[in-house]
Design goal:
Length: 295
C-alpha cells in the first residue's frame, strides 16, 4: 500500500504533482518574480501556505491517498475490462470486420489525439454536470470550498466524485480503444512520454500545477480561445465565476457551449460565495450526504 501514498505521487508522471511538473511550475513562478513579484510572494506567504484551507488540503491528500488504495481502487472498473467488453459487444452486434490497413505512424498519432480530445470532452461535461445537478454539486463543492490554492488542492475531491471521474476515464478510454481495435486490429499504441499521453505531458510542463495557485499565468487571448490556462481555471475557483470555465485542457468546449470567461481581474476571491467555511476533515467527507448543511 505504501507505494501509492505520499512520495509515489511525486514520481509518477500520471500524477499532477509529478516532480518534473512541479519543477516546471516553479521555474514559471520564478519568472513572475521579475514581472509580477506580488503573486509569487503571496503564493509562498504564511497567509496561503499555513491557511486553514491549505492545512486541510495537506491532510486530506494523505487520507485520500490511503482511501484510494483501500476502498476506491478495488471498486473501480478498469480500462481493460471496458476494452474487452467493448470489442466483444462490437463483434457480437456487427460481426467480424475486415481490418482497415493504415500506416503505423498515422494510426498511433490518430489514436493518441482521439483519446486526448474525447477524454477532454467527457471531462468537460462530467465537470459541468457536477455543477448543474444539485445532488452532484453537494459533492463537487468540496473542491470549491478551498479559500486558498496550492497544487494539493487538485486532490481535494470527495470520494464519490473520485469514483465518477474514474468511471468516466475507464469508459471513455475503453470505448475508444475497443473501436480502434475493432476497425484496425490489436496492437494499438499511443505516443507517450514516460508512459503518459504526450499531450497531457506537454500540458503538465506548461504550468498545469499553477491552476491551483495564486500565480495568474495566462496564455493570452488568442490561445485561451483554444486552451485552458492556469488563470482561466483560477477564475473558475472564484466566488464570482464558479460556474464558468469547466474545461480541463481545451477551452473550445467552454467557447462553443457559452461557458468561457476570460475577464482580467485583480484580487481574486476563492471559495464558496456567501458561506463561512469550517475547514473540517470530517465535514469534507460527511456534509455532502446531509442536504442543506453548509461546510
Amino acid at each position: 500500500m505504501g507505494e501509492y501514498i505520499g512520495l509515489n505521487y511525486f514520481f509518477d508522471a500520471h500524477q499532477r504533482i509529478y516532480w518534473l511538473y512541479l519543477i516546471s511550475a516553479l521555474v514559471i513562478s520564478v519568472s513572475f518574480l521579475y514581472f509580477a513579484p506580488i503573486f509569487v510572494k503571496r503564493q509562498f506567504s504564511k497567509e496561503v501556505l499555513l491557511h486553514k484551507s491549505a492545512k486541510l488540503d495537506y491532510l486530506y491528500f494523505v487520507v485520500m491517498s490511503i482511501l484510494k488504495v483501500l476502498i476506491i481502487m478495488p471498486l473501480m472498473i478498469s480500462v481493460t475490462d471496458v476494452i474487452l467488453w467493448g470489442v466483444h459487444t462490437l463483434q457480437d452486434t456487427f460481426g467480424y470486420f475486415e481490418r482497415i490497413h493504415a500506416s503505423k505512424e498515422i494510426l498511433i498519432l490518430s489514436y493518441t489525439l482521439v483519446v486526448f480530445v474525447v477524454n477532454d470532452f467527457t471531462r468537460y461535461w462530467t465537470h459541468r454536470l457536477l455543477h448543474l445537478v444539485p445532488f452532484l454539486w453537494r459533492f463537487h463543492r468540496i473542491h470549491h470550498s478551498a479559500e486558498v490554492l496550492n497544487p494539493l488542492t487538485f486532490y481535494r475531491v470527495h470520494p464519490v466524485e473520485n469514483i465518477l471521474f474514474g468511471l468516466r476515464y475507464a469508459f471513455t478510454t475503453g470505448f475508444i480503444t475497443a473501436i480502434f481495435i475493432y476497425f484496425f486490429g490489436a496492437g494499438i499504441n499511443m505516443v507517450e512520454i514516460l508512459g503518459v499521453n504526450v499531450f497531457i505531458f506537454v500540458f503538465g510542463l506548461l504550468g498545469t500545477n499553477l491552476r491551483h495557485s495564486h500565480i495568474p499565468l495566462s496564455y493570452g487571448k488568442k490561445l485561451e480561445r483554444f486552451f485552458i490556462s492556469p488563470y482561466l481555471h483560477q477564475l473558475h475557483h472564484t466566488t464570482e465565476f464558479t460556474h464558468k470555465n469547466f474545461g480541463s485542457y481545451l477551452a473550445i468546449w467552454d467557447l462553443w457551449f457559452g461557458t468561457l470567461v476570460r475577464e482580467k481581474k485583480e484580487n481574486l476571491v476563492y471559495g464558496l460565495k456567501g458561506e463561512k467555511i469550517n475547514h473540517s476533515l470530517f465535514g469534507l467527507f460527511v456534509n455532502p450526504f446531509i442536504k442543506g448543511i453548509k461546510l
